[in-house]
Amino acid sequence: MLLGEFIHTLDAKGRVFVPAKWREELAGGVVVTAGQERCLFVMTKEAFTRRAAQLEQLSSDQKANRDYKRMFFSSASEETVDRTGRMSIPAGLRRFAGLEGKEVILIGVSDRAEIWDRDSWSSYKGSVEESYAQIADELS
């Protein structure tokens, strides 16, 4: 399970250090793809396969389903965590999430990690913190 919040900086080659606590779980390779709110999703290959199976159940007759699947799959890239704990983020995904030459935040979200531009995460987190209790009530 991927948990926590970590601050890192992208290097000149578009690589980021993966938190040491996550490396064993992600050692078999990952898939990085476009997420929501301009973040990136990082999933083990197994988690990505499960998500892909769920998406394949959606009817391609509905435009929203086609649009989502196109974005999700076309932006997906298989990556590995190298022996020093770094993972490459493809240029197109860095542009999508606004990560060019900036500090990034990696957060654990149970079965996936997310990579955010530091300012975007701060803004998003601030807006959600205000309604956190209300969201919990709605989920019940």
Beta content comes to 25-35%
Rounded to the nearest angstrom, the radius of gyration is 15 Å
* Unreliable parts: none
Class based on secondary structure composition and strand pairing: alpha+beta
CATH architecture: 3-Layer(aba) Sandwich
Mean pLDDT: 95
| Full CATH superfamily name | Transcriptional regulator MraZ domain
Overall, the morphology is globular
* Overall CATH class: Alpha Beta
Number of helices: 6
Determine the N-to-C terminus distance. 22 Å
- Placed side by side, the strands forming the largest sheet appear as 1-7-8-4-3-5
Biggest sheet details: 6 strands, antiparallel
What's the order of the H and E elements? Answer: EEHEEHHEEHEEHH
Q: Number of domains in the coordinates?
A: 1
Please give the number of β-strands. 8
CATH topology: Chemotaxis protein chec
Describe the structure.
It is a single chain. The protein has 6 helices and 8 strands. The protein has a 6-stranded antiparallel β-sheet, with helices on both faces. It has one domain: 3-Layer(aba) Sandwich (Chemotaxis protein chec), CATH 3.40.1550.20. It is globular, with a radius of gyration of 15 Å. It is of the alpha+beta class and 140 residues long. The model has no long low-confidence stretch (mean pLDDT 95).
Topology:
Elements: E1 5-9, E2 15-17, H1 20-26, E3 30-34, E4 40-44, H2 45-56, H3 63-74, E5 77-79, E6 86-88, H4 91-97, E7 103-109, E8 112-117, H5 118-129, H6 132-139
Antiparallel strand pairs: 1-7, 2-6, 3-4, 3-5, 4-8, 7-8
